[in-house]
UniProtKB/TrEMBL annotation:
UniProt cross-references to PANTHER family, sorted A to Z: DNA POLYMERASE ETA (PTHR45873)
Name of this protein: DNA polymerase eta
Bias-annotated ranges (Low complexity): 609-620
Species name: Nicotiana tabacum (Common tobacco)
Lineage, top ranks: Eukaryota, Viridiplantae, Streptophyta, Embryophyta, Tracheophyta
Compartment(s): Nucleus
Amino acid sequence: MPVARPESSDSRVIAHVDMDCFYVQVEQRKQPSLRGQPAAVVQYNSWQGGGLIAVSYEARKFGVKRSMRGDEAKQVCPEIHLVQVPVARGKADLNSYRNAGSEVVTILSRRGRCERASIDEVYLDLTIAAEAMLADNPPECLETISEEAVKSHVLGLEVGTNPRENVRHWLTRSDASRRDKLLACGALIVAELRLQVLEETEFTCSAGIAHNKMLAKLASGMNKPAQQTLVPFSSISKLLETLPIKKMKQLGGKLGTSLQIDLGVNTVGDLLQFSEEKLQEYYGLNTGSWLWNTARGISGEEVKERLLPNSHGSGKTFPGPRALKTVASVEKWLSELCEELSERLQSDLEQNKRIAHTLTLHAQAHKSNDADSFKKFPSKSCPLRYETAKIKEDALSLFQAGLREYLGQYNVKTSGNKNCGWGITGLSVSASKIVAIPSGTRSIMNYFQNQEETYPQVKLSSEKLIQDAPLLSPSENCLGCGGHPTLQSTEQLARHEEDKETKRCIEEEDKEMCKEKGFLLSPEQLPDKETLICSSPDAEVYPKWEKEYPRWEKDQTESSGVSLTEKSRDTFESEEGKRKSNKEKGMQTISRYFQSQNSGSLIQIEHASTTNLSESSSLSGPHGEQPQENSLTRGESSVDARLCSQFKRPAWSYDIDEIDQDVLKELPKQIQEEVHAWLRPQKRSNTVKRDLGITRYFLPSKDK
DNA sequence: ACGGTTTACACC
DNA sequence: TGGTGTAAA
């Protein structure tokens, strides 16, 4: 519940812009013959014509509604055009809509702070722009007002027989209050923006303009499609007086129902009878105050500057009889979901230079057979590793951890076979804690690169696979090493056996899906390559560091390592036998990365199949029981052994004060700051300790 | 046994 | 904190 700032003198200019039946418009643009037609977007044509998720206004006239089935829609509107949502990997693929939404956001963010509220809605804070307009070129001085602006609806304005003229008059009154004038400026700006959206994207939208988000949102829905509505201060009380409580954002659910049932509040106006204390008594301090303010049209919630989503998710439901009954089928679907997620993470990285740090798995399950069937399947999360195969692996581990918890201690080992009584009715994976790569991250990499220029390139041979993991997440590649044990060969063999079982199960369960090629999760069919694309770095950042290189280089060459580091390295190298020195290896990857970066606007880093690298879960349980190898296989950046000794673990497991300040001080100032920047948002996972072995190895005193 | 799929956020 | 619940589109 947003906290209401007590700020009754709110003269901000806030707009809420809402795309009209957005998915339909996206399809109409793609297929212009659909324009002006009754149309709807459906997903999963399979059952009863699929479910409608967006309906054109033409179709709404026939009584077609969202939440109808395709078949129903055809009954009430035989002419309706049903367009299917794109499908990829056996599930709805919303990317075309996301991309279209981005187009719109780009345009709408031109005139002020812009908050992407959903795939098809934004809030704008136009206060500054409106004030500027009022100062320089107020509406009252304009001889013409845009056609789109005079089509506005002004709540509380009596428009009579000539609405345009009356609105024009309202917008240009010289005797209006400052608030109303600001709102008028907002209306002109929004009208202009909406026109730009139409010209540049062919999409129409509706908007509300008010003094806060709550009222702007309310207004944007009042005159659709392709219109805008203003909420002058003087209209607020009358507007809310009769407004059904459930129409208010945040009150459409249980809280609104409680208000109705428990307090007999049916309109927002009814709320006015209750003192703030009374509301707090019922609903707590925050919600109580929020309700009290809401009743008065007061909302201090700020428009946040956010153009991009804070998380990415990919999920699917498996209702009723379609519930997943085997780990194998769960693994198959997780694989699909993870591939989509990974793809989107790659896009985000390329387009926005952002990295997600947390992977979360959600599932819904039912236990047909059992006592405590009310228990919910627990969500689990862990640090996110940027590689499709790793994401799959980790998601499966999280699932298995969740499943064990869900089933309780007595879970029979069911490696891929028909289980005892559970079914998975929903699966989703999501990536969160997305942070922009600090501008300096590119510079720190430049720094490393320059570091390497003193080293000759060494031809790679068989270790290539390991070394060419993507150099992206600092926790994964530059600083952090290990933390994600790879599997040893015995287990790999075991896994191959399990793959066969997996195949068998899948064939049994989802025949039609299995016909798709590349669908099974056998090693042979996994993609043998992944591509990573990054833009080139800003060139200007690193020259000023040049003077500091010699120092760094010296440290590196003379580094003999700190005890813990050496221990791990020895362990690792003895296991890996014929690896090159860490130094060479790290240099190889890093320099490759930057060579490519330097070469042009776009680079591609290929890294080979992961099937022979990463395997299965490292969690306790069926897999976890196996002796685990301490595999610091990758990310041995070898820049400086002393640095490495400090940053052996994945970045998320550090405390700032655990790091030897002397070592840190060896680094240039900017780098020190960046190290802090990396460590700050990242905290130790306390859910699934996939890195117990390694952590224990390095931190006997602090970690258990 | 569900419109399905995503996102955000408050709470503890 | 991460995990859960609520709300919305």
